[in-house]
Amino acid sequence: MRIRRTTRTLVAALATVLLASSVAACGNSDTGGDPGGDETMTLGFSQVGAESGWRTANTTSIKEAAAEAGIELKFDDAQQKQENQIKAIRNFIQQKVDVIAFSPVVESGWDTVLKEAKDAGIPVILTDRAVDSADKSLYKTFLGSDFVKEGRLAGEWLVQNTASATGPVNIVELQGTTGSAPANDRKKGFAEAIAANPNLKIVASQSGDFTRAGGKQVMEQFLKANPDIDVLFAHNDDMGLGALEAITAAGRTPGKDILIITIDAVRDGMQALADGRFNFIAECSPLLGPQLMELAKKVHAGEEVPARIETQETTFTQQQAKEALPNRRY
Ligand code: AHR
């Protein structure tokens, strides 16, 4: 009698375990994960590359925040190639990660792979850079900066600081990666801000691919072709830092003979600004990791999230850079 009762209890317990695991398996087949369950959440992240100081700080922020949040991070470096990002996203889908996040190297050409993720039931978060897909249901949210505003802030500073100029002010522009959201948007914002001042003229504009080497090489060409450059607007600090070498080699003094405006405010850029070699920086924050992990947990749990979340940013003059430098984290 006693033995029979124990057997019945064991059978009941086994049945409960089997039922629970089959329910969990059903959930996984839809979502590729374990929404709300006890398993470690898996986040597949496809990074643009390692083209700039900003990117390195962004990668560190994401890796540290994932470890802090107890999220298993599958990290892929696309080396600035869209085809590598598409491959990485397909791998994440195959591995049935719970959430996919990525910083798209360029804006267009994502619909097919995003549809594949959607069909697999894996939510996608865009970080840092946006895509131009008309179908907004292909991703859950965007977390990053207002790049148009950054370009506009750069242009507004220039308008204010050249107000007394009597003749033409010749500007050269080092664009970021061709087709990327920050290159498109910063160009647009800057052009809008200077539009009402016909003496401010962009005499040359070319991509330096967001790298120091690119910035240096393109600035050398600009200097050869345009003897009277007054201003350099670089879409990021790294290209501005590369351009410094070209400007000095051409016998001109950066920050004095040629005003230099950049975007990002990474440590090396801030140092150049504090030293008087740059004149103004509009900040773009790479510290997206903690917010990204919070969002990933929410979308995994099926919670509603805002369609767009913008980072809080500021601007720096030379004096402000001197004050901020000692506490700059990146
Ligand atoms: O997408 C953000 C931009 O990408 C940063 O401004 C730049 O430095 C980086 O490479």
UniProtKB/TrEMBL annotation:
Signal peptide: 1-25
Family annotation (CDD domains): PBP1_galactofuranose_YtfQ-like
GO cellular component, one term: cell envelope
Record bears the keyword Ribonucleoprotein: no
Gene3D superfamilies associated with the record: 3.40.50.2300
Subcellular location(s) per record: Cell envelope
Domain spans labelled Periplasmic binding protein: 45-303
Source species, domain of life: Bacteria
UniProt-recorded Gene Ontology molecular function terms: carbohydrate binding
Predominant cellular place of this UniProt entry's protein: other
PANTHER family: D-ALLOSE-BINDING PERIPLASMIC PROTEIN-RELATED, GALACTOFURANOSE-BINDING PROTEIN YTFQ
Family note: Belongs to the bacterial solute-binding protein 2 family.
Protein known as: Monosaccharide ABC transporter substrate-binding protein, CUT2 family
